[in-house]
Design brief:
The structure is a homodimer.
Chain A (H helix, E strand, L loop, with lengths): L1 H12 L6 H4 L6 H9 L4 E4 L4 E3 L7 E7 L1 E7 L5 E8 L3 E2 L12 E4 L3 E7 H10 L1 H27 L2 H18 L6 E3 L4 H8 L3 H13 L3 E4 L2 E4 L2 H7 L5
Antiparallel strand pairs in A: 1-8, 2-7, 3-6, 3-8, 4-5, 4-7, 9-11, 10-11
The structure holds a DNA duplex (30 and 30 nucleotides).
DNA sequence: TAATCAGTTTGATATATGTCAAAATTCATG
DNA sequence: CATGAATTTTGACATATATCAAACTGATTA
């Protein structure tokens, strides 16, 4: 199995810098792996609340999250902030800035986290040589588009409880995709931040949590969440109108 | 001026197939232009209501809209439809499908329209040879991400009138970018479709239009819109809370 | 021109979420 | 472990939008 061998080696080659999201599905030769690995040797740590980048910063790199999690938020002229997304380990952050050469939102660590910097010029140069990497990069960007549009659907037509259900199920999937429990996890963000993301006030988010618990759909204690009835949560979504 | 000459030639080379969005900012040699032009010689027409692609169709190509306009909409399991975007001439449609190899939403012509098909494999191959094309493709995808996130902001925290103001100003910008009047234009979509896109009911959209007219911000007669007070519309956005 | 039909506007009422306030819980720090 | 700060929960009330219904407008067809 050519593929599994090279995948295995690739993991090793990239081990100093978690490029899961970028590497795993890509079939590369040993030499190519070396180039891939050279792409980013830097790994930097950020404490809770630290900025990975700020709005207006020049865009130069994408960042692969090695551990921890971040939120991205946009700043309105009047000072309001609104969360545009949550990124967890294994995911790529910074895709929004390619089109403008400057970051249009800011990224803040939700907990102590480590990221690997991926200079975008190098990434483009390498992906010109490696079609499979090129396609994968395109897929990552496309997935971001799809995910955003999914959120739009959610925000556009759903009521508070449906939104929260979608949010929880989405988190659950992402945890599962990374080998963690999909029914029990720790939220890294506040009710306020969830609300900002879902277009709700924190009180509404809190009430929705309480209602879910009341209906035995989940169990919540502050930020510790357990999904007790996945089918139930699923059926909540899209039974409306 | 090397650039303007080549840009001029490029326009000519691509004239049989409007690749504005894809070509204009790219600096190419004559030979490269030829390759670019060969990318897509097909130009197909669609009547109002025709499907460009349907949800589930295999992804093979992007489409450059040569004339007319489309809407993309997602289908919920229960049969509901929700508009996820409007695309006008000069724009690229189909970016969402790259990550799944299958279309996740459907694209419908809002009026009689023409599109050029851009086989994605060919586009990737060419962009491996032409760094400026590669970067531009990345920018287009990134812009889509930014635009979607912009809509999320809008849907998340804004009230009906603010949403409609953002929508109108966004349309205005896109018309202006294509050399059309930015204050007077014909809407190609119904109140229903606008509402679906903005997460509002058609009655709410209609009321917002009426209120804007009442305040002398715009003049509306059915689908003919004139923006009378651009600064006023701008100030409506983000003066909240 | 008249008739029909889809789309739009307007009105009255219901409901979900926002707002404001206070209590309860969790978290951080000494 | 105790204290104070931050976050979360809960309650009462206000308000924006949805819902239902009807009238109106403009476009299409006979």
């Amino acid at each position: 199995m050519q593929r599994s061998v090279s995948t295995f080696r690739l993991k090793a080659a990239c081990s100093n810098c978690n490029l899961r999201e970028l590497c795993l599905p890509v079939d590369l030769s040993i030499d190519e792996m070396q180039q891939m690995d050279d792409l980013s040797r830097l790994k930097r740590g950020y404490a809770r609340g630290d900025y990975l980048y700020r709005s207006g910063d020049k865009f130069q790199s994408l960042f692969a999250i090695h551990s921890g999690s971040f939120k991205t938020q946009a700043l309105h002229e009047d000072g309001r902030e609104q969360v545009t997304g949550f990124q967890m380990y294994g995911e790529i952050i910074g895709l929004d800035a390619i089109c403008t050469d400057h970051h249009t939102c800011e990224a803040v660590a939700l907990e102590n986290s480590e990221v690997c910097e991926l200079p975008f010029n190098k990434l483009e140069a390498l992906s010109r040589k490696l079609p499979s990497l090129q396609r994968h990069l395109h897929k990552i960007m496309s997935r971001e588009i799809v995910r955003d549009q999914g959120i739009m659907l959610l925000l556009g037509s759903m009521r508070a409880e449906e939104r929260l259900a979608v949010f929880l199920l989405n988190l659950s999937q992402r945890f599962a995709a990374r080998g963690l429990s999909q029914t029990q996890f720790q939220l890294r963000m506040s009710r306020q931040e969830i609300g900002s993301y879902l277009g709700l006030k924190l009180e509404t988010v809190s009430r929705a949590f309480s209602n879910f618990q009341e209906s035995d759909l989940i169990s919540v204690k502050a930020r510790a969440v357990e999904l007790l009835d996945l089918p139930g949560l699923h059926s909540l979504v899209g039974k409306q109108l």
